[in-house]
């Protein structure tokens, strides 16, 4: 979204000062409707926020929020593009525009324009506020309940097991999904960052999955105990290996002794455990740090519309 403010012209300021608080709110909300018609854009995408007075200029200002589009909007331009379209109505060198034909927008000072006041941090706060809705809360509570229940079950069955692995596995899988989703949803806005984003997603996946396969091949050939375990649990091992493409440390799910099940008691050799450790450590430099740098550049320097996918990637990347 984008937040900006307009200034009322002399006639508009005089008119606005004569209104009471309720009338000022109605005036501003009607103006938001008229602005939407002028751009044109869906009515719901222009929201009146507040008004304020600049006593030095003896002028009144009204703040509006340009909301992002949804699938039902006829105008699916981004908030940034709508912001630019609105400002084009001011750059007319004295000619009449759509702003002049409506009762309230005629009071807008066209020489002043529509000034953006949205900072990146304010955008992030707005994204979080918009994203926190009943559906999101319910999904979060259900996920937290299931993971906690799974952890407590594992701890009840085997207190000595590394049962907290359920949370780590969930975070690794979530990180994979978020990283991919970030590129898919923001590919048009990433511009020069698109190729680095793809590289630092694909390259770690290749490294991690190759390392995971190498560990399995080495263990099945050099570690008889692991070979016996693998023959009995090959399907699970294949699934975990696939998910280990996001982080080779997910292999620890196999030797976590979760709930005391033999399924999760893979007897890795000390050499395999060292490879898993160093593989996870190397991910900091080949995946986490590069992706974090990309996220920071994207959030601070690119003139793009921030969204929940970028925010999620920034959080998981850090």
Could you explain how this protein is built, in words?
The protein is of the alpha+beta class. It has two domains: 2-118; 123-317, no CATH class. 59% of the residues lie in helices and 8% in strands. Strands 2-3-1-4 form a four-stranded antiparallel sheet. A hairpin with a 4-residue loop joins strand 2 and strand 3. The protein is elongated.
Per DSSP E runs of 2 or more residues, the count of β-strands stands at: 4
What is the average of the pLDDT values? Answer: 83
Distance between the termini: 24 Å
Percent of residues in helices comes to 55-70%
Radius of gyration: 28 Å
Give the key terms.
alpha+beta, 2 domains, 4-stranded antiparallel beta sheet, 11 helices, 4 strands, elongated, 14724_t:CDS:1, transmembrane helix, membrane
């Amino acid at each position: 979204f984008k937040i900006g403010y307009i200034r009322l012209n002399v006639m508009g300021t005089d008119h606005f000062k004569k209104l009471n608080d309720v009338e000022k709110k109605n005036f501003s909300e009607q103006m938001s409707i008229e602005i939407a018609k002028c751009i044109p854009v869906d009515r719901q995408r222009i929201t009146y926020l507040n008004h304020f007075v600049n006593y030095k200029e003896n002028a009144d200002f009204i703040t509006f929020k340009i909301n992002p589009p949804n699938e039902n909007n006829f105008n699916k331009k981004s908030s940034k593009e709508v912001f630019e379209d609105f400002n084009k109505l001011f750059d007319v060198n004295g000619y009449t525009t759509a702003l002049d034909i409506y009762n309230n927008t005629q009071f807008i000072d066209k020489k002043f324009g529509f000034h953006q006041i949205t900072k990146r941090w304010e955008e992030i706060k707005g994204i979080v506020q918009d994203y926190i809705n009943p559906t999101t809360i319910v999904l979060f509570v259900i996920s937290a309940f299931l993971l906690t229940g799974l952890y407590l079950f594992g701890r009840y069955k085997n207190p000595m097991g590394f049962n907290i692995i359920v949370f780590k596995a969930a975070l690794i899988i979530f990180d994979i999904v978020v990283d991919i989703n970030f590129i898919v949803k923001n590919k048009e806005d990433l511009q020069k960052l698109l190729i680095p984003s793809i590289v630092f997603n694909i390259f770690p996946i290749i490294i991690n999955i190759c390392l995971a396969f190498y560990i399995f091949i080495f263990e099945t050939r050099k570690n008889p105990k692991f070979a016996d375990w693998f023959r009995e649990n090959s399907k699970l091992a294949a699934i975990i290996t696939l998910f280990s493409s996001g982080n080779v440390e997910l292999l620890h799910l196999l030797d976590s002794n979760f709930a005391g099940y033999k399924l999760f008691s893979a007897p890795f050799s000390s050499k395999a455990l060292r490879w898993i450790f160093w593989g996870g450590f190397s991910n900091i430099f080949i995946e986490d740090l590069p992706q974090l740098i990309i996220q920071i550049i994207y959030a601070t320097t690119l003139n793009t519309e921030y969204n929940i996918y970028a925010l999620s990637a920034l959080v998981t990347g850090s």
